[in-house]
Amino acid sequence: MKRRRGIALVTVLFFLVVVVMATAVLSQRAISGSWFQQDDAVDLKAFYAAEAGVQEALASWSADASKSWGLNPLTDNRIQVPLQGGESFYTIRFSAHDSVNNLNQAAAADGPLGIASVPARQAYLVVEGEHRHRRRRVEVMVGASGLVERPAALMGAKGILMSGNVTVSGLGSMLNPLRVPGDLVSLEDQSLPDLIGWSGPGQVDVEGSISSNSPLPASISGSLSAANVSGGNLTAQSRPRPERLDITSRVAAKAGLGLPAPTLTGTHTVLAPGDYYVSGPLNYNGDLELNGANLYVAGGIDINGSVSGAGSVFVDGASSFFGDSSVSASDSGGVALYSKGDVNLSGFDGNRLLADLCAASGSDPNGVPYLNHLANYQKWSAEMRALVPAEPQVTPTHFGVAGAGFDMRVLALTRTAPPGYATATGPNSLGTETAGVSTAEGIPLVNRYLEMGAQLKLTQLVAAQPDSASTRFLQKRFREMNGGDFGVTSGSDVGEYEGPFGRPASPPLTSWTGDDVLRASLQSGKVGHGYYRTLNSVWPSLVDGSYPAADLVARRNQLWTLAYNNLQQMSLDKPGTAFFQGLIYSAGHITAENDLKVLGAVIAGGELSRLNLQRGVQVTYVPEVALSAGASLGRVAVRSWVRR
Predict the structure, then answer these.
(1) What is the C-alpha end-to-end distance of the chain, expressed in Å?
(2) Is 105 inside any structural domain?
(3) What's the predicted TM-score (pTM) here?
(4) What is the pLDDT of residues 359-392, one digit of tens each?
(5) Residue 211 maps to a domain
(6) Rounded Cα distance, 304 and 612, in Å
(7) What DSSP letter does each residue of 341-393 carry, written as one string?
(8) Range of 86's domain?
(9) Could you count the other beta carbons within 10 Å of the beta carbon of residue 464?
(10) Which one, out of 35, 270, 441, 580, has a CA that is 20 to 30 A from the CA of 630?
């Protein structure tokens, strides 16, 4: 019995020992787990301290227009900056082995990762966070930020409506031909149909996706079913909306700083680096070049010409650009247009520019107002168009029916009155050569002979202006009208006869041979300009058979069609070719009435903003350009995380 009791007692004691040991192990594990949890919490708080340092550094650079913080380590280093609570700190040191500010430089700089490891216009930021002696190190690349976290080639807050040919693609950077997706995005998240639509004709090609935040499949119109879209059509997306930009406040903040207003003169103005302020609407007939300038306009802006260079335009109102409207730069830094109101890109208005130029230039050397020449040019050109029938007429006269009247107007436009033409009598007088021509005031030209050569004199006036896209276009348009060589001095008797496709001075009309200039131009079909004047000269011999080659009749008909179409479409306007390198942003709608060519991104960012692209658009999305447009806003953000 005693033996059994002893065995039982030993068993109980053994069991108690096991229980005690197990309890001790569990207790130790609990203590260790708690210690690890505390260690993880300390480590996490050190990481949070480092991230707080990153955010404060970004805020410092964003608030510093000169982006100079970090260029002087003696004053700019931040050592153990305490955070709320006093137990966490962060430290930022500037040196080639730590943080490097390269935000203002156009070339790469040396950094912790090696030679030239910090790209141009960026900064390498190293932040050490500390909590209870535990340290965490964070390293990031910092650069200018845009208005939206994930920009795209085309973004419309409400939707995108298109017509004509549309091509959307993407490049890795201005120097990197690597293709990247160029997306077309509607940011509207309501279940609405046709948020993105296309009315044709033509073709839609998208190297990327057509994306809608709306969950409704029909938010992407069925009209795009035949589009060539590499990334497909995506609905129920979550693309973030752009930040609401307070353009009014930005422009108003410049009002009391004594900034100069831009001096816009002639047909071409270059704005030097710096800020400029306009207290009301800005209207300019000419080409504006931004050379590192930031332009702030308190009203709308209306420019009839090109806008180019490197800089930014902030408009507290609507923006209208007529012609080769461009905001561009040789690199990817901070180029943008920010408009509170609608943005309209349309055609160049040559008559408007000429009218202002003629009014400002007064009179020609003979005392005739340039405005008279412009009025005569418009009247005689319109009369020429009315005299040309749509189909060739089988009649041996100059340029079909009423050809003599057409020829008179060619002479009135392109010849000046030399000495000896002061009377209306004689075989070579103005009375016989322009008998049926009257001025815009309704007075026979024979009584206003000094108003001869309206087109020639206008061309000379334009050619005397500083060279620009608009003046080059006008001179080209004049040559297309009548051909001829207009590189002459005032008063020269120059018209179509001396042009490269004009009537030869000799031999006479009846003895033209197969190798003359006119026949060669007809046979080759390479009449570069002055279509109708060329046809005017050759027409009689085509009708009476002076040209032996039968196929010239077919070529004559082809040339007639070219000439007629050229006349009917001829004006001093041209379709809008809007080119931007950077970001186009509007809190209203954005409309391109003809071609829209963009390197960067286009954002219609207001609550109800739409993109309306008519008759063709070409957008090449460049992420670097789109993001760098934020340089004009002063913002910087983390571009990439190197170490966390």
Answers:
(1) 72
(2) yes
(3) 0.61
(4) 989 998 889 999 999 999 889 888 887 877 766 6
(5) no
(6) 21
(7) S-EEEE-EEHHHHHHHHHHHH-B-TTS-BHHHHHHHHHHHHHHHHHHS-SS--
(8) 35-144
(9) 11
(10) 270
